[in-house]
Design brief:
The chain has 84 residues and is mainly α. 35% of the residues lie in helices and 7% in strands. The chain has helices spanning 10-13, 20-29, 31-38, 61-67; strands spanning 2-4, 51-53. The protein is elongated, with a radius of gyration of 17 Å.
Amino acid sequence: MHRLSFCSERWATGFATLNLKILKDKVDSGSIATTARSNRVEPPQNKEGFIEKIKVETKSFSFLFEKYNIKHIDVLQIDAEGYY
C-alpha cells in the first residue's frame, strides 16, 4: 500500500491506496500540497518525499471466521477503492 509519508492527520490518511499511480497523480497535480497547506502542514520540498510504501498485514475470511467463531454475517461492507 502507498500513503503520504509526511503527515498522519486524518485528512492525509485518506490518501492511502494500492494504486501508486493514483497517489502520484495527486502529488503531481499539486492538490495534496494545497490540501496540506490548508491544514497548516508544510509538504516536503521534493515530490519523492510525499509517498511511502507500507506493508499491510492481511487476514482471510476463513481465518477470521475461525478465530472469532463467526457463524453468520448479516451485512458486510467493503471499501474496494473502485475495483470490482
